[in-house]
């Protein structure tokens, strides 16, 4: 049946389409005819107006076709020639637009609007191939002048090598002849390159690189395979080749030649290595090579050369540390430190020499090189000195770096043309190493205390001297202090090997207090700070840093107390319920104090965050901290725990809960505007916390007063008896005490709802009554004693009657208030 209907539907669609096509053709034909008639009519009217008046006054025979033109509107607008005289308006002026819009023959006229303008698309980032084509529009020229010469020199060197190998295999050339051919080939390439250096610059550079490569490998083969040269001779010859390459790069003014000479120079030790491991020769050669680059840096500012020399030096010196120092019994620590110092001095001079000569500014790359040079040197020195006299000289080494940078900063500060960025950087290094001196020489929490005091001192000196670099350094030192404090907490509080700390008066808590004092003093100093803190990546406003310090102070105060309390409670009571009760009381006290401080703040965001923290603590109290009180009571009275410290402490927790609810309810108007769901859910949340707290207190006090006069069980039989009695008592509280308590709470909510004219309190009261009745009839009646059943029923009945009486007594007043004064709280 469905298939039949589908086929029938298709047939109807086909037939309808044909019929619609026929109608469409007829309409199109009619429109064409009407348009022609209208055009003829307008032409006739124009001719009529152009006749003389005598002719125009003669009677004109009426035209039969004129009537339909007045009522039929053309679907396509005719082409009207401009005329000076006003033309007669059509009879139906507004209809042609409508008919024209729905005409299937007409085409929509495009209207240029702002929305129809094409949107400006972001220019896509060109690909590597597109950039290559843009930089090299003439591919033929690129291949002929740039690519072929590099391929050619590589093939030429390979061809020379193959020819020499063939001659060697055929015993045509002995060892000395082979070396001579290599030197001759390399010299020939250098001579040709020198000959064409002015006319074919790029090609000559490639020839120089090839010639140097041939010379390097020829001398290496002569030493390693043929033993023609001794190691010293081969070493000296390669130094000469490297020096010659440096001179060529300077005379030709080509950085690629300098890079080539560097690569060959740093490859030389591997070419002439005999496996003896003489580190003095290796490091001396690298030092000589770096001195050559220092000379080059005086004449030319070739950053790529600096990078290559610096990278190879760091790599080779790291290999020396890993092979000659690490794990060796009698390692050359003093020699390694001497060479590290010389490398540091050479690259420090290489960083400074050209810019100082030209009085140029230092770029971010050059600053980064200077910083990394200092960092690598300091790391190498600390690593080497850690094995000398148990690190006794590490503090002296750190102080020496501070003195060196201070002397350099003082020398450059007197020169007006020196870039101020370099001066500030050196001052920052002085402050950094001076800050590290005491921590390196001292141990543990003394580092944190020193940095806490120094951060304040640096900020104070910055405000007195006007040096912005000192203010920036104070931020960095403050960060180091916080990291060090976290390490102290981990070491002192969590390490089991640490001796037991005294309560409060221990080095961990005292260090925390000093760190907090540093943050508070910094916040007070920032109130007189005006200029922002400058960094290389940007600047930090004083207001933002004040907010950061405020939050850090709160976080530090909280975790200082938590760590100390948790440490002492764990060692005193273990990980039992008493520890949870103590931690819960501390958290609630902190939330109350935070709210009291935040209410004095004018910022709504601070009060909102403090309120959110308080609500979170109330939720944690319900689901985590308060149940620990009942676990503590059960463990104590059943003989599993020796302390009941949690029960007297919980009264403070109870006061904090009440205080939080009062504060949050009082401060709620200051938090407006709040989302509507928050305003509606707050009375329910407050009522839930109050009812839960009252129920928990009922359980705790009935259990405490019931078992307080009994003897704590010691044997398993006594524990089983107490266990049975304990849970039977809980069942009685649940079935008798809770219905009465909840009924009283519901009555109180109803009274408050009447008194404060708050509809939500009344709804909460009725809901709690309904829950109590459901619990009573569905659960509590089973197994309840006769006296408990009577007490529950009588109390609930009396309370319900009182509420009913109150409703009847002031029903009219409630209705009037609800209808005329509907506030957000009532709704």
Main sheet specs = 2 strands, antiparallel
Overall pLDDT, averaged?
74
Number of strands: 2
What is the molecular shape? extended
Could you name the ranges where pLDDT drops below 50 across 5 or more consecutive residues?
Answer: 1-17, 53-58, 60-119, 817-827
Q: Mind telling me the C-alpha Rg?
A: 48 Å
Q: Tally the helices: what do you get?
A: 28
Helicity level: over 70%
User: Biggest sheet, strands in spatial order?
Assistant: 1-2
Order of helices and strands: HHHHHHHHHHHHHHHHHHHEEHHHHHHHHH
The secondary-structure class comes to mainly alpha
Termini separation (Å)? 59 Å
Quaternary state reads: single chain
Q: How much β-strand is present in the residues?
A: under 5%
Protein name: DUF2339 domain-containing protein
Transmembrane segments: 147-164, 176-196, 202-223, 235-252, 279-299, 304-321, 333-355, 367-386, 392-413, 422-440, 446-462, 467-487, 499-521, 542-561, 581-598, 607-625, 645-664, 684-707, 736-754, 761-778, 790-807
Keywords: Membrane, Transmembrane, Transmembrane helix
Organism: Spirosoma foliorum
